[in-house]
Amino acid sequence: METGAEANRLNFYFFLGGGVELSSPPSPSSPPRHLSILPLLFAASSSMSNNVEKEPGPQQTPTEEPEKRKREYKDFGHEQEGPTSKGARRHGHRSCALLHFINATLTFPQIELKAEDLYDKEKVDLETIVIDDVFKLLQCDENGLTAEEAQRRLELFGPNKLEVEEQNAFLQFLSFMWNPLSWVMEAAALVAIALSNGQGQPPDWQDFVGIVLLLFINSSIGFYEERNAGNAVKALMDSLAPKAKVRRGGTWSEIESSTLVPGDMISFKIGDIVPADCRLTEAINVSIDQAALTGESLPQSKKTGDQCFSGSTCKQGEAEGVVISTGPNTFFGRAASLVGQDDDTTGHLQKILAQIGSFCLVTIGIFVLAEIFCLYAGFRYKYRRGLDNILVLLIGGIPIAMPTVLSVTLAVGAQQLAKYKAIVTRITAIEELAGVTILCSDKTGTLTTNKLTIDRNTIHTYGPFSAEDVILLAAYASRTENQDAIDASVVAAIGDASRARAGIKLLDFKPFNPVDKRTEITYLEEATGKLKRVTKGMTGIIIELCSRNKTDEIENRLEADVEEYAARGLRALAVAFEEVEGDDFEAEGNGFELIGLLAIYDPPREDTKQTIDDAVALGVKVKMVTGDQLAIAKETGRRLGLGDHMYPAKVLKDGPAPGGKHASLDEMIMDADGFAGVFPEHKYEIVKRLQGLGHLCAMTGDGANDAPALSRANVGIAVEGATDAARGAADIVLTEPGLSTIVHAIRQSRIIFQRMRNYSIYACAVTIRIVVCFAILAFTYKFDFPPFMILIIALLNDGTIMTLSVDRVLPSMTPDSWDLAEIFSYAVAYGIYLTASTVALVCIIMETSFFQDKFGVSLETAPPIAANDRQLHMVVYLQVAIISQALIFVTRSHGFFFMERPSTALIVAFCIAQLISSIIAAFGDWGFTKIQAISGGWIGIVWIWNVLWFIPLDWIKFAMKATVIKSLRERREAAARQEGASGVPMTRTQSRAASLHESMYSNRVSFIKRAARKVGFGGKVHMKPEELHRFSSIQAQRAGATLARNPSRPTA
């Protein structure tokens, strides 16, 4: 019979008929594959007794030597001994041997495991089996793996990190040609080559090649900049790769944690992050903070045999362990794999682009239909002549560079944000960050230093000792090395850490442990030669030890002082002292005396108060969201000037108290300065409700269980030191602690937004200007402008406009949002005005002899000038090229264009483009298109004409601004009356909620997703409830339930 110890646990007998010859690493995102089979025999004693079968044949006795049934077999590449079996191969694998137990043959079913099944608790529970069986299963020992074996397992199990599939470069390049604006240009190219045959003329190769070149140049520039930005972000993320201390071949060394494999022996100490899921083989006073993973607010004590999760932090002690899970098979690796992207998501910026594209296409479509009707039905144009006029509208009207310019602007902006220690993982989050109206920030490490500190101004004393004496004695009772957070704060309070041992001789030290909840030091005071003892710890524990002054008066004072601390959110640390008679340091003392009470708190960062003021000045309200107690949250809010309207998280479930000042939960959330006692599901609910009130919300987080809220927020921000799972779910990853980094990012994102807005006004204005202008000329004068010259204008414009991505602009002082009515209004005004400048010039040239008489210039034909005079075409080309491009200086500025200096790149690009345009006008005499060079006199006339028409553009801008501002003010006042006095700026939700033709305007990011079908992090959140059995904590189950109930994130 088995012993009781053997019967009380699940025994694993790894009598392998075949090796564990897995050929590729497990991946939770890929379908199960039979890589090869790991046959295991295991059974509980109860199942053993139920499966005993007597078999005929010779019986083995208990004394029979096991060597008689040994054989060599391979497992994980090592030669091992195991029980023999005569089983034949089944499906390419050896069957397992029969186990023989005490006069009976026990037969167990063979269990075949895939690679991923190694981490399935229902089959193999590496977290609970005895540590000896872990070593047997993983075929390792405490000396660690060899370098060769570690490399083999790395290839087998994959790297110890969350894999994100690389974006296909070719598909990324093609995506710049996959949008409605590009589709129209591609159609125009096909029209030019396939349909422009007629009237004995050859195919329009020049226009075809020009359109393809235009598309290729735009796509190449966008691809290059985005790829550069992506590589820069990847390099920054790689620089955050953590290290791990590992023993291989009996020698300790430090390696990148991504190279850890199951079976590695690792070591970590206080302050280290556990690099992989492991089972502890040695633990000395170990306390692990698992809050980022499980939501457990207090550090958990660990002993030998316990499991530690990857991503948790060692708060106390030192430990060694054997790695049992790496990468996607770790606790939070499995959780992160449940946070995926939704291929049907259309980002907010893509929706805005769709609306701008709709505006341009509708404008073009109206005038194309008008030309078809007028030119063919009215003027009886031949097929080829009318088609050339239509190509002019299509090529000149489509803002083909828009997707590229905005992508390049965002890509360059992402690199600029990286300089502010903010890594952008979802590039369109920059646009949304510019519009954020509420920032929900966690307290610890962001608003505060995450470093406990003694508040010297609130120390209470209870005896003849001064406050300085209390601090010094408390420092005696603290470790000077391998400190926990409290010991570190006490020692730091005395200024010079050497004073914690100066003048004394340490005889005995008892560190903090979860049972005693105090530290104690016995020391020899060198000046007097006396033995003394100091202890510090929880007030309830310390007061019970204080036999010398434990009176009702002292107890009442202590209770009142502790309550005072608690009301202010301060933690209390009691200090007691006694003397020890004689020379025996282990002898009892004369009785402890309570001498003082220290207040411990997490102080605000030095720049936090100013940063919050800066955020308010930018129109962003900061709300504190913390897991700490309500009193701590109020005290922190008071110190920061954040406000004291703090509420416990339970109000999110219970609602406001009846008869209170808040009529609804939404009103309470808007009024709140923060929430305390918050769990991940509360963060999710807060963000959801704020979004429901029309606000763009940013949320900070650091743990794997923050992933739902980070994904739900318009902008999820993983703070410095966040876990990989939080980084994966976030849109922006901070590499520097503090709120100031976020506010810098908001300010920079608004600069980037202004660049995009300026270009959008310009692009729409040029569309109006080209389409309306050439349609009017065609209707009025039967003016047939050559399509090839429109291509030249488009190429030169695009080259100049690309420099807007680095233009010098000022950020707005309120949250930005796309007011398309404002953009289109400006565009129409500018476009009509520029149209008038061209039509007026053509009218004067054709209807009068003004320029010929006053300036002595002439064209190819004598007055009256023919509508399709080739030199007239060149004059129109130069006029349109110059003043259209000059418009950017008006749209980029808020005041007079010369008051806001543009970037050097923009000035240089503009000058080069206009020099090229002037050279073409002077020397361009191409037989394949209807143009002819003009004289220097005409070039001068065109420049003077454009300068005269350019000057009033600023006044048009001011007139439009006054009109638009008045309209916006009325709209905001109405919105404020509807919302009530919340003190938070309203976003322009009307523009965000407008109906969009999403089926037609699938953004190019979605195109890549559909083509590559990747699975990644940072999109919508989905969690299958049936997956929850893989997790062991209640907190994980609760977070999972929240994910299952709320599977989507907003896109507007």
UniProtKB/TrEMBL annotation:
<feature type="transmembrane region" description="Helical">
    <location>
        <begin position="390"/>
        <end position="412"/>
    </location>
</feature>
<protein>
    <recommendedName>
        <fullName>Plasma membrane ATPase</fullName>
        <ecNumber>7.1.2.1</ecNumber>
    </recommendedName>
</protein>
<keyword id="KW-0460">Magnesium</keyword>
<dbReference type="Pfam" id="PF00690">
    <property type="entry name" value="Cation_ATPase_N"/>
</dbReference>
<dbReference type="InterPro" id="IPR036412">
    <property type="entry name" value="HAD-like_sf"/>
</dbReference>
<feature type="transmembrane region" description="Helical">
    <location>
        <begin position="871"/>
        <end position="891"/>
    </location>
</feature>
<dbReference type="GO" id="GO:0005524">
    <property type="term" value="F:ATP binding"/>
</dbReference>
<feature type="transmembrane region" description="Helical">
    <location>
        <begin position="936"/>
        <end position="956"/>
    </location>
</feature>
<dbReference type="InterPro" id="IPR044492">
    <property type="entry name" value="P_typ_ATPase_HD_dom"/>
</dbReference>
<dbReference type="InterPro" id="IPR059000">
    <property type="entry name" value="ATPase_P-type_domA"/>
</dbReference>
<dbReference type="InterPro" id="IPR023298">
    <property type="entry name" value="ATPase_P-typ_TM_dom_sf"/>
</dbReference>
<feature type="compositionally biased region" description="Basic and acidic residues">
    <location>
        <begin position="65"/>
        <end position="81"/>
    </location>
</feature>
<feature type="region of interest" description="Disordered">
    <location>
        <begin position="49"/>
        <end position="91"/>
    </location>
</feature>
<dbReference type="GO" id="GO:0120029">
    <property type="term" value="P:proton export across plasma membrane"/>
</dbReference>
<feature type="transmembrane region" description="Helical">
    <location>
        <begin position="356"/>
        <end position="378"/>
    </location>
</feature>
<keyword id="KW-0406">Ion transport</keyword>
<keyword id="KW-0812">Transmembrane</keyword>
<keyword id="KW-1278">Translocase</keyword>
<feature type="transmembrane region" description="Helical">
    <location>
        <begin position="787"/>
        <end position="806"/>
    </location>
</feature>
<keyword id="KW-0813">Transport</keyword>
<dbReference type="InterPro" id="IPR008250">
    <property type="entry name" value="ATPase_P-typ_transduc_dom_A_sf"/>
</dbReference>
<feature type="transmembrane region" description="Helical">
    <location>
        <begin position="759"/>
        <end position="781"/>
    </location>
</feature>
<feature type="domain" description="Cation-transporting P-type ATPase N-terminal">
    <location>
        <begin position="125"/>
        <end position="197"/>
    </location>
</feature>
<keyword id="KW-0375">Hydrogen ion transport</keyword>
<feature type="transmembrane region" description="Helical">
    <location>
        <begin position="827"/>
        <end position="851"/>
    </location>
</feature>
<keyword id="KW-1133">Transmembrane helix</keyword>
<dbReference type="Pfam" id="PF00122">
    <property type="entry name" value="E1-E2_ATPase"/>
</dbReference>
<keyword id="KW-0472">Membrane</keyword>
<dbReference type="InterPro" id="IPR006534">
    <property type="entry name" value="P-type_ATPase_IIIA"/>
</dbReference>
<keyword id="KW-0547">Nucleotide-binding</keyword>
<dbReference type="InterPro" id="IPR001757">
    <property type="entry name" value="P_typ_ATPase"/>
</dbReference>
<dbReference type="InterPro" id="IPR004014">
    <property type="entry name" value="ATPase_P-typ_cation-transptr_N"/>
</dbReference>
<dbReference type="InterPro" id="IPR023299">
    <property type="entry name" value="ATPase_P-typ_cyto_dom_N"/>
</dbReference>
<dbReference type="GO" id="GO:0008553">
    <property type="term" value="F:P-type proton-exporting transporter activity"/>
</dbReference>
<comment type="similarity">
    <text>Belongs to the cation transport ATPase (P-type) (TC 3.A.3) family. Type IIIA subfamily.</text>
</comment>
<comment type="function">
    <text>The plasma membrane ATPase of plants and fungi is a hydrogen ion pump. The proton gradient it generates drives the active transport of nutrients by H(+)-symport. The resulting external acidification and/or internal alkinization may mediate growth responses.</text>
</comment>
<dbReference type="InterPro" id="IPR023214">
    <property type="entry name" value="HAD_sf"/>
</dbReference>
<dbReference type="Pfam" id="PF00702">
    <property type="entry name" value="Hydrolase"/>
</dbReference>
<feature type="transmembrane region" description="Helical">
    <location>
        <begin position="903"/>
        <end position="924"/>
    </location>
</feature>
<dbReference type="GO" id="GO:0005886">
    <property type="term" value="C:plasma membrane"/>
</dbReference>
<dbReference type="InterPro" id="IPR018303">
    <property type="entry name" value="ATPase_P-typ_P_site"/>
</dbReference>
<keyword id="KW-0067">ATP-binding</keyword>
